[in-house]
Amino acid sequence: MNANRIMGGGPAFQKGIADKPKMKTTQILKRLWKYLYHFKWFLFLALFMTLTSNILALTGPKLSGMAVDAIHGKGNVEFPKVFFYCGMMLACYGISALFEWLLSRTLIRLSQKIVQQMRSDVFRHLMTLPVSFFDQHQTGDIISHISYDIDTINTSMSQDLVQTSSTIVIFGSLIMMLRINPLLVLVFAFTVPLSFFLTSHLAGLARPVFSRRSAKMGELNGYTEESISGHKTVKAYHQEDTMNARFQLKNTDACNAYYQADYVSAPMGPAVNFMNNLSLSLISVSGALLYLFGGRFTLTLGELSSFVLYSRKFSGPINELANVISELQSSLAAAERIFVLLDTRPEPEDAADAKELHVHEGAVAMEHIHFGYQPEKPIIHDLSLKAAGGSLTAIVGPTGAGKTTLINLLMRFYDPQSGTISIDGTPIRQVTRKSLRLAYAMVLQDTWLFTGTIRENIAYGRPEATLEQVEEAAKETVEKATETVAEVKETAKETAEKATEATKETAETAKATVKKTAAKAKTATTRKTAAAKKTVKEKADAVKTETKRKVTRKPTKKIVLQYLGKEFDEAELTERAIAQFNSIEGGVAVKTITMYLKPEEDAAYYVINDQYTGRVDF
After folding, report:
1. Residues near 285 by beta carbon (within 8 Å), at least 6 away in sequence
2. Sign for the pseudo-dihedral over CA of 490, 492, 493, 494
3. Distance of alpha carbon 357 from alpha carbon 434, whole angstroms
4. Whole-angstrom Cα distance, residue 307 to residue 178?
């Protein structure tokens, strides 16, 4: 094996979606429309119910005005007309309410089908992504896409679409008001543009903060999943307080993001509601003046009543839309995260001329491999090794040496930037990934059992295996495990016996040596005592002087770290490292010290005299 340089280090986690939106609103709406159109029959049915319900609801105010005009004064009331118009009003509103109820059920069903399809698309796409994607993204953040983000879209489609369908009422009410009195409609020429300006401005402010809210929620879920998965490690190193402190920071960030999103979107509803109330007041006053002095624009009391009702139907949906817009911003932010995930490039396809791998001897060779999880930061430099077929080859090394990286390269979870990996002389780039990975049997350090029976877990890599084959594999594994345990016990017993014999021989040799040297030592001790005392004193003074010099040495470059509200500089970390070293090694002089800051591990590593290593926690 030839390895000029190997450095371990897996790919770094990426943060969630950036605060700034990556997609335009029109792009997101087009992608959502494709899902809607996929269930077009539900969509057409919902559109029919919406039109029917709103047309019937718009007929009510007209009938109300006609009923009012049938009352000519005291003692002059056309009761048959009044009762007829009231009965027609009751029927229209009743049928409209029925269609609106059916519409809500249809939209809920439509949203469930869309969410089901979207969740299937996301999971199916996740199965096509390379291992590098999962190495670079937290599991909790990925789960947040499937659960939280899709649930947000579901809520928006099942509830907000019902309210947005009322936009038909806005146009219908406008047409009816124009038919009653065009002059009175001019009141809305002032209030509607102002309402539109307010909603557009607030919506533009809300979109980025809702994107940030979704991202922060994903980060919080990722950290929670990571903490629960590594609970044993947290307990083993007694880091509960540290993990709690970090969680509080992320929890606070998520809460602040939620607060900021709600704070920005909260004024939208009250502002539009104020404008609607203002328009109603202006209409009431202007309508009364036209009723009294309108001239050719005069209107009856019934028409004024109908106009006021239509104005409420006109401004009411606008107010609802203002409230819905803030919710839609959250839905658009969630949809953006989903579509960004769906747009992530899957694992590259096999080469067009790739063939199935047929293993004969099983010889593995790596030649002049250069690799880095990030191409600009290589961690393997010119690595070459060979493992003969049928041989047992062990790759050992400390944490971060690159053992897992070699496995990633052998199984083509990653491809090297240069160099060749071959099996039986066939480069692995020329074979299909499926046949390559099926040629390996991997036993991971962390065991993982999928939901299902023991048989299904044993046959996971070969689903077509028969029951007899599964049972035989299980028996063989148990027998090998039993033999391994017996070998370990026998080896331990032999080692203990050899250690006992060696101890006895060492003791006898020591007895003879002590007897021969006792007389010489007695004479030499007296002569060397004075010289030894002097030498020890000189060395102690030198160590004291050298250590003091290193302790008080200030670094030429000050590096300030902030962590949980505290600051640490290089000088303080250096002094703590030397103090820790002196407490362990005693009187060894500190000649050189090199510090390696690792903020992501909340620690700094040091190397003293190019020999002694240690760690200082922040």
Report:
1. none
2. positive
3. 9
4. 9
Contact 380, 395 (CB under 8 A): no
Nearest to 90 by CA among 60, 61, 58: 60
Q: Per residue in 60-79, pLDDT tens?
A: 888 888 888 887 767 777 88
Q: 314 by DSSP, 3-state: which?
A: helix
Q: Can you list the positions of beta strands (E) in 407-541?
A: 418-423, 426-427
For 533-586, how does the pLDDT look when each residue is reduced to its tens digit (9 = 90+)? Answer: 444 345 444 434 433 333 333 333 344 444 444 455 667 777 777 877 777 666
**DSSP-H helix ranges across 440-466:** 454-458
Measure CA of the first residue to CA of the last residue in the chain; give whole Å.
Answer: 39
pLDDT at 94: 92
Is the pLDDT at 47 greater than 90? The verdict is: no
Question: Is the Cβ–Cβ distance between 379 and 7 less than 8 Å?
Answer: yes
Alpha helices in 127-238, H assignment, sequence order? 131-136, 139-144, 150-155, 161-164, 167-180, 182-185, 188-229, 231-236
Q: What's the pTM? A: 0.56
Q: Is 347 exposed, middle or buried (0-12, 13-18, 19+ CB in 10 A)?
A: middle
For residues 581 and 585, give the distance between their C-alpha atoms in angstroms, rounded to a whole number: 6
For residue 383, what are the β-bridge partners? 3, 369
Give the C-alpha separation, 89 to 82, whole Å: 10
Residue whose pair of structure tokens reads 């429309």 in the numeric block: 33
- Output the CA angle 113-105-31, nearest 5 degrees: 35
Q: Give CA separation, 231 vs 86, 141, 240, 243, in Å.
A: 69, 18, 9, 10
The residue length of the chain stands at 618
**Distance, CA of 408 to CA of 428 (rounded, Å):** 13
For residues 121 and 102, what is the distance between their CA atoms, to the nearest angstrom?
29
- Helix extents (H) in 346-431: 403-410
